[in-house]
Specification:
Layout lengths: L2 H17 L8 E2 L1 H5 L3 E7 L9 E6 L4 E6 L4 E6 L4 E2 L5 E4 L6 E9 L2 E7 L6 E3 L5 E3 L12 E8 L4 E6 L2 E5 L6 E6 L6 E3 L5 E6 L2 E6 L5 E5 L5 E8 L7 E5 L4 E5 L4 E7 L7 E4 L4 E5 L3 E6 L5 E2 L11 H6 L1 H15 L1
Parallel strand pairs: 2-6
Antiparallel strand pairs: 1-23, 2-26, 3-4, 4-5, 5-7, 8-9, 9-10, 10-11, 12-13, 13-14, 14-15, 16-17, 17-18, 18-19, 20-21, 20-27, 21-22, 22-23, 24-25, 25-26
Length: about 350
């Protein structure tokens, strides 16, 4: 080949490479995250909706299936609880109806049940079933004057209650009866989580993380972590017991030590971190980005968002209170599933 032809060919290749789309971002552990013993894997990818948000929150039901919504195509997906899946590998996909201007589904699991609600109203807290269908919770939470869901939902096995960021503030909801009470009036956080012992609530507030007592809603401390914090989960056991995982909007994941406010970035390279949900069957934490759901593990002898090796307890007081309503609700479940 003549020198001039070779130069022209090389120039053409260079132009083609420059014009090629950039490789898809992938969340990756930093050196600090690796040395600290964290393990990061991909649960589901393939949410390709032209940059629009794909995966939402997750919940794990009593059969060990993971239920999650996808706002990109308006469906509720049911997956087996294994890594490295795509949307095409789902057990089922069920369309859901957009009811709000922000129809993302906050989702969580509690005592083998999966609950969720579309963001920013109307009052429509629901239980999601193994086939991807759902039904509204009974009682006051969905009645006129009930709660409009905002941006956070977390199940607390220690009390059997749902914690919700709502139009009225952070509220506690009994999912069996639909009764609710407002714990922190006027607070409208983004992501929220409750420590596995049920004592402390962490919430994203104005670009930081605040902590509150779950007993009375009183303020404890504020942490200026930066990076656009969103979903959070508390570690139990191991070297980082009591520290908080933070999924950030800037595509990073942080580790917050509430004792000294130390904040370490343990993963980078994501598209936009948002929802998190605990997988209480194995102690890992689901973390949603625009294009994928990742799974974070803190290694042996610890878990994130749940007590290690302890199944979710039945809450007898709540079961007794909600027995009548729960019976009717379960009959409705069977009818829907038939």
């Amino acid at each position: 080949m003549k020198k001039s032809a070779l130069i022209a060919a090389c120039a053409s290749v260079a132009l083609a490479l420059a014009a090629a789309p950039a490789a898809q971002a992938a969340l990756t552990l930093t050196a600090a995250g690796t040395s600290d013993g964290f393990v990061l894997s991909t649960f589901v990818n393939g949410y390709s909706f032209n940059g629009n948000y794909g995966p939402l929150g997750q919940g794990v039901d009593s059969k060990g299936h993971v239920i999650t919504g996808s706002v990109g195509d308006g469906k509720v997906y049911v997956f087996n609880d294994v890594d490295n899946q795509t949307l095409g590998g789902a057990i089922s996909s069920t369309p859901y109806t957009f009811q709000t201007g922000n129809p993302n589904l906050a989702m969580t699991s509690l005592n083998g049940h999966v609950y969720g609600a579309q963001l920013q109203g109307p009052a429509d807290y629901r239980e999601f079933f193994d086939d991807g269908t759902s039904a509204p919770l009974p009682g006051a939470v969905n009645a006129p004057g009930g709660l409009t869901n905002f941006l956070g939902l977390w199940g607390d096995p220690s009390s059997g209650l749902l914690y919700a960021a709502s139009n009225s503030g952070v509220a506690k909801i009994n999912p069996l009866t639909g009764a609710f009470s407002v714990l922190i009036p006027g607070l409208g956080p983004d992501g929220i989580t409750v420590s596995p012992d049920g004592s402390t609530l962490y919430a994203e507030v104005s670009g930081g993380i605040n902590s509150y007592k779950t007993s009375d809603g009183s303020f404890l401390q504020s942490y200026a972590v930066g990076h656009g914090p969103d979903g959070t989960g508390v570690i139990v056991g191991g070297l980082f017991n009591g520290q908080v995982i933070v999924n950030n909007n800037d595509g990073t994941v942080g580790l917050l030590n509430p004792l000294n406010s130390d904040y370490t970035i343990i993963a980078t390279g994501g598209t936009r971190g948002d929802f998190v949900s605990p997988d209480r069957s194995n102690g890992t934490l689901f973390m949603s980005e625009i294009d994928a759901v990742y799974r974070l593990s803190c290694g042996p002898n610890c878990s994130i968002g749940t007590q290690p090796g302890v199944p979710e307890p039945s809450t007898w007081a709540l079961m007794l209170i909600g027995f009548g309503a729960a019976g009717a609700f379960l009959r409705r479940r069977r009818t829907l599933a038939a």
